[in-house]
Specification:
- Two copies of one chain form a homodimer.
- By secondary structure, chain A is of the alpha/beta class.
- Chain A has one domain (5-171): P-loop containing nucleotide triphosphate hydrolases (Rossmann fold), CATH 3.40.50.300.
- Chain A has helices at 17-32, 41-48, 56-75, 89-99, 111-117, 122-127, 158-171; strands at 5-10, 36-40, 79-83, 102-108, 149-152.
- The first copy, chain A, has a five-stranded parallel β-sheet, sandwiched between helices.
- In chain A, helix 1 crosses helix 7.
- The interface between A and B is medium-sized, with 19 and 19 residues.
């Protein structure tokens, strides 16, 4: 049976998690004929965490649910890709421990750039005080200390970032 | 790639869902070399639905979360087995629609027998009024109209029940 693993993206809103995660999913499906499931932050909130807010406690609960589902997929040979902000280091560490085959990808993009892009218009709302506890504005983002991969989406193309990740997965032996 | 599907057990507390579901999982793993995940009601409540109670609304939310995870596993080629009471017909129907490859197993066992067994001591508590909204006592159980399989755990051995289910899966072509 094939070895499951989880690619865990973490980064600010607007850093490029969705774009790169979808591209990585596409490449793994096409080039390695693997089953891949992208657990998008918004979709998971809708289906598993309706009613939860953005306090530290509620964010932690949401992330632990994503981790639980990623663990189930991973131990059944699926490639799980998570693309939630997941701002807190301690909870990402718990996810790593419960999942096992874990590739943490730090989507590193300066706050100024994310805020300039503001694809969903959320930074504007956060600056105006219409959204509270927004990561990077009035809630902390804790960058990973030792992620398996760092991608710099302000100066790499999505294609380059995706290839860096695929190469690391190969190097770690998860495709064998 | 292999075809995923979900075996959805439904039945009263103490009817034998866990026993038979575990046996079916074991047989499918051993005889068909498939990845199988059993989504036990209690484990899912702990990991995805902490804080939810047993009102119709909370039960529905819990079952829809189980269905969401079973759907993710199923579409990635895994065999998902759910073993929650899932007492309401309309929500099981929603689960069926969202999952697609769906085998509903009615674990048919008279209430009297379940209550005599009372493995977890829950019926006693329900009769004493210490647990409210207990299925079969003061909350309804809606039996399926057209389940793919009915097993009678008061007069079949777990082995016989498991074989009935496996035969139906074969007949439906999910192992090909």
């Amino acid at each position: 049976m094939q070895k499951g693993f989880t690619i865990w993206f973490t980064g600010l809103s607007g850093s490029g998690k969705s774009t790169v995660s979808k591209l990585v999913a596409k490449k793994i499906r096409e080039e390695y004929q693997r089953n891949v499931e992208v657990l998008d932050g918004d979709v998971v909130r809708q289906n598993l965490s309706k009613g939860l807010g953005f306090s530290k406690e509620d964010r932690d609960t949401n992330i632990l649910r994503i981790a639980f589902v990623a663990m189930l997929l991973t131990r059944n040979g699926v490639v799980a890709i998570t693309a939630a902000i997941s701002p807190y280091r301690d909870i990402r560490q718990k996810a790593r421990e419960s999942i096992g085959n874990f590739i943490e990808v730090h989507v590193n993009c300066p706050l100024e750039i994310c805020e300039q892009r503001d694809v969903k218009g959320l930074y504007k709302k956060a600056r105006a005080g219409q959204i509270k506890l927004f990561t990077g504005i009035d809630d902390p983002y804790e960058a990973p200390d030792e992620p398996e991969v760092v991608i710099y989406t302000d100066r790499e193309s999505p294609e380059d970032s995706a290839n860096k990740i695929i190469n690391k997965i190969k190097e770690l032996g998860y495709f064998s």
